[in-house]
Amino acid sequence: MSTRPVLAVLIVSVVTATVGACTIGVDSTETVGTSTSAPSTPSTTLTPGPSDVSTSQQTPSIEDTQQPGMTLGPDGSMYPARPGSEEVAVDLEPFANTGADGDGYFFTSPTGNIASAIYPAPSSAGPVGCQAVTSVAPVDGPVCSNADNDKYAVRIEATGAVHTCTTQGIYTASDAAVLQYGETLTVGGAMCVSREDGISCLLAGSNAVLMSRGANLTY
Asked: Which of 39, 49, 69, 208 is placed for a possible disulfide with 202 were both Cys, Cβ 3.0 to 4.6 Å?
């Protein structure tokens, strides 16, 4: 019997087995390669720092806490704001009148408790001043009784405010017009404003005053 056919069969079997092993190896390697995914990046949640906080959450400044019509004085107390442009200016003509010290511009508060005048020409009453039917003693000034012949009054000179007790109507006039709340009267460097908390007047370059039933302040 010849051995050549048997040897050929053995050679073919070895070759087939070898090729099969290589094929299996290649398939296994490709499968591992394609099934491997890249490592995922962990998610991060950012917490805002102090600089990221909205300014609306910050502590309000001292200006934000002030009451309307009030201002912070150098001693830390609250005082009425000096008369300014936030009020409505009135026409001078209805306020022109004649008082004890001559011609000027006169008015009363809506309640009638305060009478004030602005004198354009020099007078003993000063450029601007007020007197009250009833008021209180100023911090630095005389104590008046509020009697008919002993009324609280104040005038503003270029050198500052002067508080007195008056026995007559220095800043009153017959049929004086009413300066309504929120209105201002300005003549030259003198200005007065009517507010619910009283009458405030100022003289440019000098002081401002507030007079009411319960206040008699210079600021």
From this structure: 208
